[in-house]
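Trying the structure run again after the queue cleared.
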Amino acid sequence: MNKLSFKTTTLIAAIGMIVYTIYVVVRYAIREFFPVPYHYDLLNDICVCLIFDILPLSLIIAGIGLWKHRPSKAASKSFHLFTICLFVALVGTLLFSPLYTYPIVGIGHLFPPIYWRAIMLISGIVWLFMLRIQPMEDATPRSYQVTLIIAMTLLALPIILEAISGLSLVLGGEIFCFNSAAIKTWVKYIAPVLLLSQFIPYRTKLKGIKLKENAIIPN
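Done. Tokens:
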């Protein structure tokens, strides 16, 4: 994958996150200011599920772009600092999850306050645009690619479960309850944590190597 395709996949991922963020914020505003009684509609539920799939799909696309690329040692300090801040915020979201986890059926749905979710989404979009302009290198350790596989598998899991449940409804008239919606609320935080964890020690290690190379050893 060349640099052009890397920038293209990153841009597609960022656009997907922008669309998802706008939908989430607008949907919340409509429900807040123009509340209507809840009425279940299968077609509407399917459409909402598909829209919510935009976020994990966008993150998967970003992961595909990063498969053979990662920021080089010349990546900016601002990008490194922003990566650390985003990583800490995501970990904090998971650590304090009991405060905003709603047990509906089986695994609880992770729903932080809408303002925090909007901040995290916007931060993710900014990070992707910052990533696009960083100098990249092709060499990647196997552990990095294994982590990417795990992260993308987690993101794909709820989508696959949704597809299985949908097929069971069409073919057999029965919906399997896999709690895919709840799983999706968790993996969209867990997967980025796994990915960002690979960037933080990487730059620190390179910086240490560079300092060692530039050190003046007395005779």
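Residues 3-206 form one domain. Worth checking whether this holds up in the mutant runs.
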